[in-house]
Amino acid sequence: MSEAIEPVVVAVEVGRGVEEAFRVFTAEIAAWWPVADHSVEPDRVEAVVLEAGVGGRLYERWHDGGQADWGRVLAWEPPARLLLSWWPNPDRPAPTEVEVRFLALEPDRTRVELVHRGWERLGDQGAGSRAGYEAGWPGALAAFAATAMAGAGAGAVSSRDSNSSTRLRPRPLAE
Hints:
alpha+beta; Alpha-D-Glucose-1,6-Bisphosphate, Chain A, domain 4; 8-stranded antiparallel β-sheet; globular; disordered C terminus
């Protein structure tokens, strides 16, 4: 049995209501997901798609019609929670989990908390994979915050695992 590996925890606050924050995160993922740094085939990506509801797919769609699956929706609880199996690299031994919670701080302010866990399932690859996502998730959530805040100011990214997300360099999902 593998030792427990701490989850990656990243949070961002946006000046949007909880329903709108959930909608932008899910329905508008193609508008904010940083495909140049976080996709299986960055040069081929036409869109990132998250299908609503339990069992829905999360995948990148390519210009030539091809696709690369990243995961499946395990829990769909708008506007409070989204839980995904996360497996953008099919060469990994198992999926991990990404849970995103949307917490209303005020009617027009929402805290979005992302927890990426289950690194133990990857065996010897767990710690290295975790390090890559610890570097990548702050940038992805910053892109979400920028899209959610378009025209309404700026969101702030915070991470329990890192004091300076601005110096972190994202890695492609397939690594």
